[in-house]
Write a structure and sequence with these properties.
16 helices; TIM Barrel; eight-stranded parallel beta barrel; single chain; alpha/beta; globular
Length: about 450
């Protein structure tokens, strides 16, 4: 019988993001982000929801940390809001914004919880969108590096685990649409695919410059990571031919060859560049060296995947459609493929040939149709099923010797789920937004058991 025991020192954690939980959008000098503008634009977010209050974590963080203590996590991933630190995007630092994160980090550390800070989780300053179009301009990468320097100089005595950017594809390829309004902030219409690829190239530059800025500014040794949600091909059957087809598909799927591949190998996928032709991004001399900075770890955000099989086609594989009855959680894109977690790890170590790189699951979770019972409980057994199977896949990776060091559940709290507003719940703690009451769900108690026993229960 498999015990699903994790090795001693495995890092159990939970994750959140600033705009999704903090609220207090005008407090202590904070200025608007592109997500404030987007969510306040009629018709862009379900039910007209905004992050103006969210979970009011800005004022309730001490109670939220107590929930973390009760849960048993020793690691917490959160993001720092650029518009709190440098409200105009560049220029003067807002020390009151810094002070909020000092209070939060000190509270975490006082309770024995290690802070893991993401420096950018999509909420870029609206002022930079107004000034030059955000990620459409190379200047964004340099302004990001200056912001990183300001944060690390001030918080680097308290934080030693840094992440540069979260999910580049989501704020570039989903935020810029060719001759159509895209689904994500800042919702910018561009004229050609090249313009979209240029935004992700600029984000990669920001990652590289951010790595350099962290190393230069940190007053003590620290760990630097990138966080990505690359597309994960999963073999329909684990036979040599289907596995080989998946590895071939990896660099050609969506943005993989133009985001995770250059970040980890220093080169765009040749197959992708050939496919893009004159729509490939402009890459200046020295860019790839900046992008391919040494990092200490890679955070993988994993929710779903896609099945691939070997095929007698020009590309040598097929990406398979999901049958109409395939199991799915409470999001249109959230098909349940637990093996995708294992294959996400294997693709980094084997397909991209980076067995040296430490890996951690920086996000994994699901939206479920949570309801509070008459007894005041939330019995999310569907979420427990989802999480249990994904943790078993994580255990398989560890057992096979892959360098997986930790797991952060998404999310600690129900929160503002971007364009879905408050309609979709990903938390292991239920939030009644009207009263800001927190109710730990059944999954919270189940996850606490996993942590206390250091295994999948």
């Amino acid at each position: 019988m498999v015990s699903y025991q994790f090795p001693s020192g495995f890092q159990w954690g939970a994750a959140t993001a600033a705009y999704q939980i903090e609220g207090a959008i005008a407090a202590d000098g904070r200025r608007p982000s592109v997500w404030d503008t987007f969510s306040e634009t009629p018709g862009r977010v379900l039910n007209g929801d905004t992050g103006a209050i969210a979970c009011d974590h800005y004022h309730c963080y001490d109670d939220d940390v107590k929930r973390m203590v009760d849960l048993g996590i020793r690691h917490y991933r959160f993001s720092i809001a650029w518009p709190r630190i440098i409200p105009e995007g560049r220029g003067a630092v807002n020390e009151a914004g810094i002070d909020f994160y000092r209070r939060l980090v000190d509270c975490l550390r006082d309770h024995g919880i290690t802070p893991h800070a993401t420096l950018f989780h999509w909420d870029s300053p609206q002022a930079l969108e107004d000034a030059y179009g955000s990620w459409r301009d190379r200047q964004m990468a340099y302004d990001f590096a200056d912001y990183v320097t300001a944060v690390v100089q001030r918080l680097g005595d308290r934080i030693t685990h840094w992440m540069t950017l979260n999910e580049i594809a989501c704020f570039t390829h989903l935020g810029y649409g060719v001759n159509q309004v895209p689904p994500h902030a800042p919702g910018t219409v561009v004229s050609q695919p090249k313009d979209v690829w240029q935004t992700s190239h600029h984000a990669l530059l920001a990652h590289g410059l951010g790595c350099q800025a962290i190393r230069a500014a940190s007053p003590q040794p620290c760990s630097i990571a990138l966080v990505d949600n690359f597309f994960v091909p999963v073999p329909i059957s684990e036979t040599p031919e289907h596995i080989a087809a998946c590895q071939k598909a990896f660099s050609r799927l969506h943005s993989n060859g133009g985001i995770i591949q250059p970040a980890l190998t220093g080169q765009y996928s040749p197959a992708l560049l050939e496919q893009l032709g004159d729509q490939a991004p402009d890459i200046q001399a020295g860019d790839l060296a900046i992008i391919h900075q040494p990092i200490d770890a890679l955070g993988i955000n994993i929710y779903s995947g896609m099945y691939v099989r070997a095929a007698d086609t020009d590309q040598g594989y097929d990406v398979l459609d999901f049958p109409s009855g395939y199991p799915r959680m409470h999001m249109p894109w959230l098909q349940v493929i637990p093996d995708a977690l294992y294959w996400s790890i294997r693709h980094i170590s084997d397909t991209l040939d980076r067995p040296d790189l430490q890996l951690f699951i920086s996000e994994n979770g699901c939206a479920a149709q949570d309801q509070v019972t008459d007894q005041g409980e939330v019995i999310d057994s569907d979420r427990i099923l989802y999480l249990r199977e994904h943790l078993r896949a994580a255990h398989r990776a560890v057992q096979e010797g892959y360098p997986l060091t930790g797991y952060f559940v998404w999310s600690l709290l129900d929160n503002f789920e971007w364009a879905w507003g408050y309609d979709r719940r990903f938390g292991i703690i239920y939030v009644d937004y009207a009263s800001q009451t927190r109710i730990p769900k059944a999954s919270y108690y189940w996850y606490a058991d996993c942590i206390s026993q250091n295994r999948v229960v």
